[in-house]
Amino acid sequence: MHFEFFPSRTLTIYLARLFITRIVAVLFMLVLVLQMLDLLGESGKILAYPGNGQAQLLTYVSLRIPQLIARFLPYSVLLATIITLATLNQNSEVISMKAAGLSAHQILAPLIAAALAIAGVSFLFNERVVTRATSALNAWSAVDYGAIPRSAGGRTNVYLAEGRDILLAGAVSGTGTAMVMEQVTYYRRDEDGMIVEQLRAPYATYAHPGWRLEEPTRFDAQAVTSNQPASAIVAQGISPERVAISGVDADAQGLLELSASIDALKVAGRRTSELEAAWWHKISGPLSAALMPLLGAVAAFGLARSGQLLIRAVIGMALGFAYFVLDNAALAVGNFGGYPPFIAAWAPFLLFALIGETVLVRTEE
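Structure tokens predicted for LPS export ABC transporter permease LptG (365 residues):
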């Protein structure tokens, strides 16, 4: 009996390489198919803007692919786990390894180690690539795929209300007094809350105080007239600091930036449970890849000739997809305040880790 956690060096490298190549293959196929379907749905909107063509379609693809990789990498690890273990079982390689004295945990150890390495790469990829791509794509889609905003690192779809003023911006870039809004719409209300004036402008700058709309189109709801002044200053009660803490997109910010946004919102007395859950999920999400070999392990064991290999593979797949369903449900409940942020992000991971370990021990150890 071998008491080391890993099998021999040769077997460890063999299993890890087999596992990683299948992850890459499955992920490539998933991203390729999903990107084609997504592009079919968005190409009409992109090409609807005058002047857009093939270059803009390629830009969209380059910004969308990182999001698809980040979202479907855990699914790819799950499917690769089922394929790898079922193939090893079908070829009687699992039986040979168990006959050599390896336990179920030792057989899975190279796969879990490889999955942990992939989880680390996924975390860095999300922090350095996915957040920037998400921020840029959100800013671009907020202006209907027109001219790409000068700073794609800002916020999108910002809504602000102060007294009788309502200010909406498709994209916001810059910080402090250098902040610039694009695709701006301003509404002024009367004492009864009815909109009496609307102004639309391509962009706005901070006017110390208020926001200067350049070449706005003004519509007077009472006189039912419209005109186009050279400029107009509106929403003097809304400061750049107020804009900075509005419309925080957790997917477009890394851990450090999101931490700063959460602290700023707490100082302003805003609710932050949704963002805190997203902060924790930035860690638990990539780490879920390391959970997939444990959930799919049921496909590795049992005699292939018994006719239950397909059933075991289906059970492993069902466990994996049940984790993803519960993970999304827990985050949704956490966003409504039903769970604390830490529990919402980590409870599904810990629960299914125990379930996978229990199934493995009870059936194979």
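The radius of gyration is 26 Å.
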